[in-house]
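Format notes (please read before filing issues)

Several people have asked whether sequences and structure tokens are stored in separate files. They are not. Every record keeps both together, in the order shown below: the sequence lines, then the token lines. Line labels are part of the format and must not be stripped during preprocessing.
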Amino acid sequence: MLQVWGLSDERLLGKLKRVRKFDITPDGRTLVTESDNGTLRLWSLPDMQKLKVLGRCYGLKSWSISFDGQLLTARYSWS
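Then the structure lines:
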């Protein structure tokens, strides 16, 4: 389980189950999560509202966010 906390007021902002990997965009406004079934989701911070589901990414091996937060790259295995 992933818990997201506000550090200034030590308030729990949200809990997400079955998160395998996560990262935050450089501007701190978006959380990207990967679930154990390969689904990528975007969440707004700090309110933890779901912005977008990018769908299941079968064969997903890795992903990363660009330094400017404008691109999300993903590497797949198709075999």
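For reference, the curators noted about this record: The radius of gyration is 13 Å. The chain is about 0% helix and 60% strand.
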